[in-house]
Specification:
The protein has two helices and no strands. It is mainly α and 61 residues long.
């Protein structure tokens, strides 16, 4: 799954800002669906996508 949607929005983002609870729900749904590979890049919000993904993967539930 691509991680650019977790980039936090802003002028250079193609996606609106998501709350961490929305990111958590997306990641949970992806994991429940069997997705275990995530594609991120530091260019997605200057590392914001990686921090959001990390938080979502470590959220209980």
């Amino acid at each position: 799954m691509g991680g650019s949607q977790f980039s936090g929005g802003g002028r250079s983002s193609a996606f609106p800002a998501l709350s961490q609870s929305e990111v958590d729900a997306i990641i949970k749904a992806a994991l429940d669906g069997g997705i275990t590979w995530y594609d991120t890049a530091e260019g997605y919000g200057g590392g914001t996508s990686e921090r959001s993904l990390s938080a979502g993967l470590t959220t209980p539930g």
